[in-house]
């Protein structure tokens, strides 16, 4: 009965509010009408990396497969690769506990701006780099102790307002269903950020609690959580033009970023990141194609690498295509006129734009060095964390620290293939030496340059062949705590350990800090945001804060789009399209035989994925897409490449969210997963 009442209220709300909110805007949930806030009780964060929603009274949570990807990967064994095979728990006894996975349910949002301002005014918290961290520690501790809930402090508009979000955090989460990756991620990297797509991107968890209904660590005595609210599954279908509601936890946008900031990202950072990670993907992909064991070990890592690389490339291209920098400069020109028109505003913000522009130009090369260090050294190979821990042993080489390091090393090494890592190191070495300013090379790195020059093959061979990473006998010896401690100097003289530990990121960052001086770019960014907020407010523009992993709501419609002149895209894809793409020679497009046999029995016109113009970004993955009755019609899992500029500037004609149709999900559960009990629990007949 409650759900029926809620649906009527939602429908009424939409009639009066759709035009007010249009399609742009990730609106904080506490600003929405009561009917929408009531619906939000069915929406959860999955460790704030994705979104899920309750779909039964007994704690079933549906989300994207790619949100659950790491869990499905980690639960796999040598006998069962759940990513490739798919996982279906047809009874609650078969559900698999997911170690370390949490689900957060928002209970309340509190405006604490006055409390934060008081802490700043009395000197408890002082402006500076550590202000945000100290504020969070004080406020979150205060509200956690007061309420017994998980408290998270969020600042919006760079300190204009502050909110505490209070969550019930559930720690016993179990995997119920995850289709094979050939179904869930059909099209793989090729189709990522593209349209059309044919992904069945869904997975199902169940949340458990103690017998008293409270959050509890995993125990066989725990019981399914009684969901505070849950969504009804829409089985009637959708059509173009239907109203949609999107709720979720978008991670981060930068729509208050200056043109100088976007220009720096577009011309400097994004090209480096997208280019180098694409080369890393080529190496890993080639090895995965050669060896199934490499694919098993690197599938999760490759997935994350691919997603970020495509995002960086798409943002760079879209920022240029849609003239984001020019449009921001046009608004900034109007803002500067507004600032200059008032003496008080002029005194406060008169030089913010010019200083921001000049400082980004001044630090450009130093910042490039930071990026190259990060991409080549810090994350260019998965051996770096091991080497980094090793180089720190000189400061604290006691038996407890060594044993702890070795436990971490064993865990990391078990996930690696040394053939892959050697090739990644070779790539990292060349890109590091070719791009980092010579004066930033550390002593051992300079010694290597003098010895080998640009013969990076020889340099790589020297580093690799002399390393314990390449010698299984030495590796086994160094993974024994007593042996590592007894032969510490030999261990620390390892050439790769020396190479990785020679230069420090802090030295690169300090150089940037020294060049920019005061005020820092961060200081200017705060003032820029305050000025832009005030300018827009004075202009009568309704404002929503940048995404920051708090619960948001957005309104839109089911809608196709024109990708470019003469290329119109339909709003949905079908089973026929998926089957037509099947290619047994291409891993990303190869349907495993048992799924292909079932898929061929489906109606060819069955809708698989659809488009809406809802405003979304990373973190919205798994977000419920609802119709005007508040019924679940799909799950958001991606955006089209043309929409990627919207992290900085909303582009209404091209902004599209890609969603999997809930009727396709239920068809798969019924006909392939044989999950009749789960479907019954979800109220699907």
Mind explaining what this structure looks like?
It is a single chain. By secondary structure, the chain is an alpha+beta fold. The chain has 2 domains: 2-102 and 171-254 and 546-681, Beta Barrel (Thrombin, subunit H), CATH 2.40.10.120; 259-515, no CATH class. It is 49% helix and 15% strand. It is built from 28 helices and 21 strands. The chain has an 8-stranded antiparallel β-sheet. Strands 2, 3, 4, 5, 6, 10, 11 and 12 form an 8-stranded antiparallel β-sheet that branches. A hairpin with a 2-residue loop joins strand 15 and strand 16 (567-569). Helix 9 runs antiparallel to helix 16 and helix 14 (384-391) crosses helix 22. The protein is globular, with a radius of gyration of 26 Å. The two termini are 19 Å apart. 44% of the residues are buried. Mean pLDDT is 93; it is low at 1-22.
Name its key features:
single chain, 685 residues, alpha+beta, Thrombin, subunit H, 2 domains, eight-stranded antiparallel beta sheet, 21 strands, 15% strand, disordered N terminus
Topology (SSEs and partners):
Blueprint: H1 2-21, E1 27-28, H2 34-39, E2 43-45, E3 51-54, E4 60-63, H3 65-75, H4 82-85, E5 87-88, E6 96-97, E7 103-111, H5 113-121, H6 131-147, E8 150-156, E9 161-170, E10 172-178, H7 181-184, H8 188-191, E11 203-209, E12 223-224, E13 243-248, H9 259-290, H10 292-321, H11 324-340, H12 343-349, H13 352-378, H14 384-391, H15 399-413, H16 418-435, H17 443-452, H18 456-465, H19 472-478, H20 481-486, H21 488-492, H22 495-502, H23 505-516, H24 521-538, E14 552-557, E15 561-564, E16 567-569, E17 572-574, H25 575-581, H26 593-599, E18 607-612, E19 624-626, E20 632-639, E21 657-661, H27 662-671, H28 676-681
Antiparallel strand pairs: 1-14, 2-3, 3-4, 4-11, 5-10, 6-10, 7-9, 8-9, 10-11, 11-12, 13-14, 13-19, 15-16, 17-18, 18-21, 19-20, 20-21
Helix pairs in contact: 9-10, 9-11, 9-13, 9-16, 13-16, 13-23, 13-24, 14-22, 16-18
